[in-house]
């Protein structure tokens, strides 16, 4: 982790992971503006790629939460996927490190997911029905439900941090030993790992949200991919 302050404005201090995370957010905003501009000009390339990406994310979200909630959940989970993917790929830029290799960044993402899960659940069922599910099937299980909420949030943060940290450390060690003889396989490995880790983080968040939407509802949601096997 790199917690050294690299820029400070009055009392507001920024570390390198914070600045890189802001750069990723700015890139996503710029990409969205470019996509809107391309659509208004009837261009084909960028809108087509955006439509394909949207359809892939739409199908993944719909498979977990069902058609009734897909439009409500997709903006959050889709943004999460894109942010993590771009943050993971930032490590490919010479001189830069992926923000997601810093535990503070992954912890912030996990806390956002933690809050979003309860927001979606309360909006879907009402706060009384949603909170009541923590007492089911017996109030004696309340402490275990609460422990589960916190442990899965911690695991979500550590999983992404550990995988990205180990990937970049392994790449650095290989480059030190083999020099620049193996750059292409390492780059491909980084791209694949970035895709996989972004997908896993987003899918776990999606499954947690799907469980929250199901809590307090009279009918079950569509089963998640993990529940089908």
TrEMBL record:
**Bilayer topology term:** Multi-pass membrane protein
Q: Which UniProt keywords apply?
A: ATP synthesis, Cell membrane, CF(0), Hydrogen ion transport, Ion transport, Membrane, Transmembrane, Transmembrane helix, Transport
Asked if Cell membrane is a keyword of the record, the answer is yes
Gene3D superfamilies xref list = ATP synthase, F0 complex, subunit A
Against InterPro entries, the record matches this protein to:
ATP_syn_F0_a_bact/chloroplast (IPR045082), ATP_synth_F0_asu (IPR000568), ATP_synth_F0_asu_AS (IPR023011), F0_ATP_A_sf (IPR035908)
For this UniProt entry, which segments traverse the membrane? Answer: 73-96, 103-122, 169-188, 194-213
Pfam families assigned to the protein according to its UniProt record, in alphabetical order: ATP-synt_A (PF00119)
**Principal location:** membrane
Compartments reported by the entry: Cell membrane; Membrane
Q: Which NCBIfam families match?
A: ATP_synt_6_or_A, PRK13420.1
Any idea what job this protein has?
Answer: Key component of the proton channel; it plays a direct role in the translocation of protons across the membrane.
HAMAP family noted in UniProt: ATP_synth_a_bact
Protein family per UniProt: Belongs to the ATPase A chain family.
Annotated protein name in UniProt:
ATP synthase subunit a
What organism does this protein naturally occur in?
A: Cupriavidus numazuensis
């Amino acid at each position: 982790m790199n917690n050294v302050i690299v820029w400070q404005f009055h009392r507001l201090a920024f570390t390198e992971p914070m600045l890189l995370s802001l750069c990723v957010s700015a890139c996503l905003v710029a990409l969205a503006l470019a996509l809107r501009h391309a659509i208004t000009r009837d261009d084909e390339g960028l809108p087509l790629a955006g439509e394909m990406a949207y359809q892939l994310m739409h199908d993944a979200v719909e498979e977990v939460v069902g058609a009734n909630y897909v439009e409500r959940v997709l903006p959050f989970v889709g943004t999460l996927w894109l942010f993590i993917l771009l943050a993971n790929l930032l490590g490919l830029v010479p001189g830069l490190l992926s923000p997601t290799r810093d535990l503070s960044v992954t912890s912030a993402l996990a806390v956002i997911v933690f809050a979003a899960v309860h927001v979606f659940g309360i909006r879907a069922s009402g706060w009384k029905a949603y909170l009541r599910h923590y007492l089911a099937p017996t109030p004696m299980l309340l402490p275990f439900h609460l422990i589960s909420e916190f442990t899965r949030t911690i695991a979500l943060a550590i999983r992404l941090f550990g995988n990205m940290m180990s990937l970049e450390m392994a790449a650095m060690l290989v480059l030190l030993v083999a020099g620049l003889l193996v750059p292409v396989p390492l780059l491909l490995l980084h791209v694949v790992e970035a895709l996989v880790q972004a997908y896993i983080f987003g899918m776990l968040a999606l499954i947690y949200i799907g469980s929250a939407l199901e809590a307090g509802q009279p009918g079950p949601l569509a089963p998640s991919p993990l529940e089908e096997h």
